[in-house]
Protein: DNA polymerase IV
Organism: Nocardioides taihuensis
Amino acid sequence: MRPDASVLHLDLDAFFAAVEQRDKPSLRGKPVVVGGVGGRGVVATASYEARRYGVRSAMSTREARSRCPHAAFLTGRFHAYREASERVMEVLRSVSPLVEPLSLDEAFVDLAAAGLPDLSVPTVTEVAEEMRARVHEVTDGLTASVGIGTSKFIAKVASDLDKPDGLVVVAPGTEVELLRPMHVTVIPGVGPATAERLRRAGIHTVADLERVSLDELVRLLGKAHGAGLWSLARAEDDRPVEPDRETKSVSVEGTYDTDLTDRKVMESVLTRQAGDVARRLRASGLSGRTVSIKVRLYDFTTLSRSTTLSSPTDTASTVARLARGLLAELDTSGGVRLLGVGVSGLADWIQEDLFGDDFGDGPGDADEADDAVPEVPLPGLPARHRSGWAPGMDVVHADLGRGWVWGAGRGVVTVRFETAETPSGPVRSFADDDPALTPWRPPEPPAPDAPVTPQSPTPA
DNA sequence: TCTGGGGTCCTAGGACCC
DNA sequence: TCTGGGGTCCTAGGACCC
């Protein structure tokens, strides 16, 4: 805890939804929900108009639709968000060299490194108001809420106190009285599970927490967590603003609209994800020794398996092979809703084979060709159709006859074999490059002398 | 057809080494 | 031969954050 209020926390208001409203004027003033729009999607951000209907982050999209059916439901446009975020971070870095981004829409700024004449409340208030105005300007109208205090914890609490488009400075010395009446969940690290444990011990507010001894808290929550909460309840927080935090892991995962049951499909998914992970590792000049998979079963049970190599890799084929091997250990017969691949134990260099011929190669040179993830056109399926499946397309599978694409994405196509004879046939998933899938083809243009038949109107 | 995706940090047990 | 401990690495799971 510092003598001055010199830690600033900035939080862009309803960020993803606000970017959509900025870019599409027709959405302004209306409820907008950004998130997964599939059957198993959840809300990432709801505009304030949508929040009035009870739509919240992390709520299932299904629930959000029932609460606010007239909202616009959009999947994210992450390039736009990243671009806006970069502009904001630039503004922050023009104020202080010590900026720690927490996500696209949040960051801490250390005002003690900003070279201000002093760190009095009026001075930091003025700096923050200028900063908010600059953010508004460079992002074409986005608003931010800002909090300033003597620590990260207090700054973060403060930025929440006057949302949206607010600024709160917590004067040094007033932290504890601000916190005491608040619910324990204001403390970062107190989520549903910890809150429930504390509730059962009769601890509801920060004031309650402050009365519990360090020993008892450690007994209740474990060493690190207990000791951390004990300090935060007293507003004791010395965590520095860290501008360059190192990446510890890189992962890709996906949840499918219908559970996967076919091992071949699962392997194909893992192979594609391994390619994505390897590509991102290389793009960052990283490689890692531990390859993990994550599997969420039909009943939401989540399993993980990992294996560690003696030297780091950034090679798609290696990650893919290990991932498929880890999957082989698991019983997935009940169906799988989520699959993921990750690499951790990262180093910013690659352990070359010290005794091999390519000693001295730079990072990323190993097995370049091996990383080319299957772009080979498969028999009977023109390359341009790969990953081009969309719901409504007509497909044919040899075993089950004609079906319709029900869901598509992340390398998986879900087909409902629904025909006039079997109105609600079985649903099966395929890898999107499965040669058994025959793509829809646009109708041939009518011959010049053929009679032109009127198109039946397409339902909206 | 309740429950995303990308992360971080912590715990606990077992292996292994000194 | 028996006993004891500490430290580190690895794996699996869980809580939490935005």
In short: The first strand of chain A starts at residue 7 and ends at 12. The radius of gyration of chain A is 27 Å.
